[in-house]
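Figure 2 data, in text form.
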Amino acid sequence: MKLAAVDIGSNAIRLQITNVTHHDGQATFKKLEYLRFPLRLGMDVFHHQRISEKNRRKFVKLMKAFKLLIDLYEVDDYMVCATSAMRESLNGKEIAEEVKEDVGLKINIIDGNREADLINVALWSYIDEKPYLHVDVGGGSTELNIYHKKQKIASKSFKIGSVRALESSNIPLSVWKGMHDFIAKHAPQKANITCIGTGGNINKIFEMSKPRKGNRYISKDRIIEIQAFLEGYTYEERVNKLNLNPDRADVIIPASKIYLAAMTAATSKRMFVPMWG
């Protein structure tokens, strides 16, 4: 069986096609195709409340390309999810309807709670009896899940994201405070809580930390060190000298600040990075 997933985010849009096989009661997943296209819908929406005509046309073309790949791989089923940029855009539903009629792909514009629930399903294999704060930083929003004794005890989505945070005026102080207060209220008290970080930016920060083979943890202090290292370069230098993708080079620093803010609120000293988004 072949499955496809499309993630329409605020900073980029991704397609993955996976082959699923079953043997002795267990499922095995093999990635057949993965594409990431840096179409930053969030920049339109967070400034003008709607997706521009230029990006609308590019988006429809991209959906046509994804649909061709889905058909060529003879996918049995697919799911397309759009998050904060399209759900906040005044013309998001209209564009989704255009794609459905002209391309044949159904786009599900999901709210923050549904987004957190989907992340929770993928995360569950990493959760044990210990307390965890899961921090998933996207371009337009940050999803938080708090676990204790293998139970999710709190979950919330905040309008704090790496693209949105490129301009500090896009995120009111009250939203930052709300995220801090939510974590402080629900995180198990007097517990050594471990954060779990997902998203492209923490994956890149973790990669830059040069971890030992088999180690999936990064300390808060090391994240701070890498943040300071990145801030020592201009955007152009981060692209040309550090070889970061152009759509990663500008958002990685504001994303690091979001992860660190969550860790501070939870008084967490380390983060587990499973390297998926």
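Caption note: The two ends are 23 Å apart (CA to CA).
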